[in-house]
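Data card: per-record layout.
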Amino acid sequence: QVRLMESGGDSVQPGKPLRLTCTTSGLTDRLYCMGWFRQAPGKEREEVATFENTGRRIYGDAVKGRFTLSRENTRKTLFLDLDNPIPDDTALYFCAAGRSRTCSATNVDWWGQGTQVTVSS
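The structure for this 121-residue chain is written out next.
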């Protein structure tokens, strides 16, 4: 059984760095796409940053240059560094993984429960 668990969500001031962590269990040695999505109240779930199953990183336009996606060499733990968060980054952040080459909000196979990030002064 595949499980994803996020941690690290917090309330921070604009510009204060924050790290989110996703720990996984149950994934085999098969290559997966993995990454982070977020959903703010009243908005659709959007892609934040993902790894293709090739290892290539893809960033959403809203976070390019401000967030950094990384993972451990085992590919079992995923990180998202919010290096320069702004109030518009306030949302519930989800970790996700899938069997496809590229993860999207409509094709991932597994979701975590989410961790809340609030950015305000």
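Known properties of this structure: The first strand starts at residue 3 and ends at 7. The chain is about 0% helix and 45% strand.

See the next section for split statistics.
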